[in-house]
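Here is the promised in-class demo. Please do not try to memorize the tokens; focus on the logic of going from shape to residues.
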């Protein structure tokens, strides 16, 4: 028996905060969650799987844009033509309590209700499968829904579908939490999880799987994203990962040792970027130079970026660098400087305080022409901004001191 397990498609993600990208690339990114779904269904048809599982957060927003629902229906109809059912639970992003225009899905689509229930399937070959799951009735589900999963009746395979958080994992909301042991205690043959966007195999036998999301939507969701083709037999499970992402986020580190000139840097960048190029895929790359000569700075990186971006806009297999940075080994360290003078220790203390950034940026966020283009910063982004500000300030102060012969 074989099936495809995917989760967190986040169809029609607005890709907010990325509209500064060139129009063609931004549009490609906005289309990418749909393209990922299409690729997923292509795989399901190619392998003629017995069914497909989508483990929550199919839609990005709880209003489920009509566009997203129509696209989902179109792909579900392709499955229906091949007689392939699709089992769906809805998660915190597309909970049942949202206010959305109802679009009818074809009959092969099996949606789990708000309480844990079992759906029975007899495959074409006569294998009996019991699938267990529930959909979020509201956005915030903090109950331990895992307690409601129980094996029911006789079947060749029992499969749990659960959109929720592995307890202790801090990157996502602690919804419908569970521990690995709780899952294993259920004695199911496969756990089809959703919610955590990073692909993670929690257990090999029986497989307990977060397939990750199907398309990265920001630089934190880097590298290839996709789904699993799962084959279950009496003797065990076999998992094969398939990529579905159309645009891939990459973090690239380049060793800048020996780069003497701007030309050297440019050549190193071009080599690194071209190595990433993949037919039919788009790449969004962040470049970091290690060990580059100290003379290279933000000015060189701005110029580099402009040149590297030059021909990529029109390229359908683009490699678009969106940032070039020089990671210079620090010329100073906090403790030394703070020990040297009260001025520095005070400066670090102010930077450590968690206030100030919002106030400093208020004039932008309150500006009528600007605010509609801005989204609020994540906590980590605020940390980054603070860190860069400190680096910049100290750099300026030290070079001024040097110049003044102090
Ligand atoms: Mn999600």
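The designed amino acids, position by position:
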């Amino acid at each position: 028996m074989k099936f495809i397990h995917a989760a967190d498609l986040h169809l029609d993600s607005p890709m907010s905060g990325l509209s500064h990208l060139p129009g063609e690339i931004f549009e490609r990114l906005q289309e990418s969650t749909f393209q990922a779904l299409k690729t997923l269904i292509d795989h399901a048809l190619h392998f003629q799987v017995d069914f497909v599982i989508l483990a929550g957060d199919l839609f990005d927003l709880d209003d489920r844009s009509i566009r997203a629902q129509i696209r989902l229906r179109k792909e579900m109809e392709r499955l229906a033509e091949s007689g392939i059912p699709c089992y769906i639970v809805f998660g915190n992003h597309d909970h049942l309590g949202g206010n959305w225009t109802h679009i009818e899905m074809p009959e092969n689509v099996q949606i789990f209700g708000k309480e844990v229930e079992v759906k029975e399937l007899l495959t074409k070959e006569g294998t009996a499968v019991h699938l267990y799951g529930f959909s979020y009735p509201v956005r915030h589900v903090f109950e331990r829904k895992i307690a409601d999963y129980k094996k029911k009746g006789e079947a060749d395979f029992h499969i749990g579908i659960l959109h929720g958080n592995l307890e202790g994992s801090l990157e996502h909301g602690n919804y419908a939490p569970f521990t690995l042991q709780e899952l294993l205690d259920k004695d199911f043959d496969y756990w089809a999880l959703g919610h955590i966007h990073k692909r993670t195999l929690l257990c090999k036998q029986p497989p307990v799987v977060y397939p990750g999301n199907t398309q990265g939507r920001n630089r934190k969701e880097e590298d290839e994203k996709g789904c699993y083709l799962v084959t279950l037999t009496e003797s065990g499970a076999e998992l094969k990962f398939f990529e579905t992402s159309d645009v891939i986020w990459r973090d690239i580190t380049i060793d800048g040792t020996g780069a003497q000139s701007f030309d050297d840097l440019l050549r190193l960048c071009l080599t690194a970027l071209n190595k990433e190029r993949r037919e039919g895929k788009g790449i969004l790359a962040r470049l970091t130079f290690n060990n580059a000569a100290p003379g290279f700075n933000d000015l060189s990186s701005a110029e580099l970026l402009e040149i590297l971006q030059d021909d990529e806009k029109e390229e359908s297999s683009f490699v678009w660098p969106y940032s070039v940075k020089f990671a210079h080994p620090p010329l100073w360290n906090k403790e030394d400087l703070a020990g040297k003078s009260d001025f520095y220790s005070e400066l670090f203390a102010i930077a450590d305080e968690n206030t100030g950034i919002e106030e400093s940026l208020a004039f932008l966020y309150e500006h009528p022409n600007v605010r509609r283009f801005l989204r609020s910063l994540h906590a980590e982004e605020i940390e980054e901004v603070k860190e860069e500000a400190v680096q910049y300030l100290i750099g300026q102060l030290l070079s001024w001191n040097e110049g003044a012969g102090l």
